[in-house]
Amino acid sequence: MFDFFKKKTLSEGEISERAQSCLGELLVENGPDKFKTMVETGYLGFTSNSVSYWADWDFMVKFDRNTICYVKLSDIPMLKNVRPAVVSDIPPFGQYVPQEILFAGIEISKSVRPWKR
């Protein structure tokens, strides 16, 4: 009867793909040095249809009402050693996501914590 009040659960595949996408964008936009700092202090919060990077736990708790699960990025050791993405001018290739990001997505999918209020 009240199923519409329950939050959707996410599969490991959905979490992994979203984490890889978000982390890849963060790396490309910020570069490896800033990315490393972001990993040391930030979180990924997953909703039923998106993923967001949060630099501050208190801000995430205060403003993100739709989170299903989250992960503290510093809990994923391989993210601390991510190398820069490789860039290619040869179509259809562009920027390649480092292998550590792909493996981290899998690790994140197994390490997320349910959101509790």
Structure notes:
- There is one protein chain.
- The protein has 117 residues and is an alpha+beta fold.
- It has one domain.
- The chain is built from three helices and six strands, in the order H-E-E-H-E-E-E-H-E.
- It has helices at residues 12-41, 57-63, 99-111, and strands spanning 43-46, 51-54, 69-72, 86-87, 95-96, 113-114.
- A four-stranded antiparallel sheet has the order 2-1-3-6. It has a two-stranded antiparallel ribbon with strand order 4-5.
- A hairpin with a 4-residue loop joins strand 1 and strand 2.
- Helix 1 (12-41) packs across helix 3 (99-111).
- The longest helix has 30 residues, at 12-41.
- The protein starts with 11 loop residues before the first helix and ends with a strand.
- The model is unreliable at 1-6 (pLDDT under 50).
Q: Could you tell me the strand content as a percent range?
A: 15-25%
Number of helices: 3
* Main beta sheet strand tally, sense and closure: 4 strands, antiparallel
Shape: globular
In helices, the fraction of residues equals 40-55%
Strand order of the largest sheet: 2-1-3-6
Order of helices and strands: HEEHEEEHE
- Uncertain runs are 1-6
Number of separate structural domains: 1
Number of strands: 6
How does the helix and strand content classify structurally? alpha+beta
The quaternary state of the protein chains shown equals single chain
Itemize the secondary structure elements and their pairings.
Blueprint: H1 12-41, E1 43-46, E2 51-54, H2 57-63, E3 69-72, E4 86-87, E5 95-96, H3 99-111, E6 113-114
Helix pairs in contact: 1-3
